[in-house]
Design brief:
By secondary structure, this protein is an alpha/beta fold. 33% of the residues lie in helices and 16% in strands. It has an eight-stranded mixed sheet with strand order 6-5-4-3-7-10-11-12. Strands 1-2 form a two-stranded antiparallel ribbon. InterPro entries: FTHF_cligase, FTHF_cligase-like_sf, NagB/RpiA_transferase-like.
Length: 236
């Protein structure tokens, strides 16, 4: 089965079971879901979360609760701008409720648009939290199909800001956890922790993670639309 088959399966199931929340439609998105706050709370009980000082979290709606928890606990939050076109945002000691939204993050956060800005303001990312469309207990994850989460990981790996074994978590609805193996490409990044509103799944024996950018698999369209990638390539 293709990646798109499993994405469609999850989107259809969330809609059919009335488990999805706005923004609508859920198709083509990292879907927001009922009790996303409970999944974020379960994640916050994990030692990987408690021990992390700097956390990178995706900007999608269901992970707003994760971003809010991080800021309320005084952690440093790193958030990619949509499609990484404006680099990353760094947030620290701000209004957690307002800054946890995408609009609020742009208001309260500092933009890190260049490699030098990233290296000057981030020494190490201790935990990554991704949004997902589908995941399984093997740590295989599918996003919405645009590949930006993988690019963000690759950029941070290239710059030495994350280790190969940095803990990576996701928060999803229980309906997003698939029993099947999921199709994976060389640039896909397996995860370690799955937090749902009812349970936490620890992945054992997850697969290989890429060591950085796989340049020959990067489309010219993405390269030209993301200044950070252009700067990385020019520094090679």
């Amino acid at each position: 089965m293709s990646k798109e088959h499993y994405r469609r399966l999850v989107w259809d199931t969330l809609v059919r079971e009335n488990a999805a929340l706005p923004p609508y439609p859920v198709y083509g998105r990292i879907p927001n879901f009922i009790n996303a706050d409970k999944a974020a709370s379960l994640l916050a009980r994990m030692n990987e979360w408690k021990n992390a000082r700097v956390i990178k979290v995706n900007p999608d709606s269901p992970q707003r609760w994760v971003r809010m928890n991080a800021l309320m606990e005084g952690k440093v939050l790193i958030m990619p701008t949509p499609r990484i076109r404006d680099g990353f945002l760094i947030l620290d000691c701000v209004d957690a409720v307002k800054a946890s939204t995408i609009r609020g993050a742009f208001i309260h956060g500092r933009r890190l648009r260049s490699i030098d800005e990233l290296l000057n303001h981030i020494k190490h990312v201790d935990l990554i939290v991704e949004g997902s469309v589908a995941v399984n207990a093997y740590g295989e994850r599918l996003g919405k199909g645009e590949g930006y989460g993988e690019l963000e990981f690759a950029i941070l790996r290239e710059l030495g800001l994350v280790d190969a074994d940095v803990p990576i978590a996701t928060t999803v609805h229980d309906l997003q956890v698939i029993d099947d193996r999921l199709p994976q490409d060389p640039y896909d990044v397996p995860i370690d922790i799955i937090a749902t509103p009812t349970r936490v799944i620890r992945v054992h024996g997850r697969g290989y993670r890429p060591s950085g950018m796989i340049w020959h698999m990067l489309s010219n369209e993405k390269l030209m639309s993301i200044p950070l990638l252009q700067e990385l390539m020019n520094r090679r």
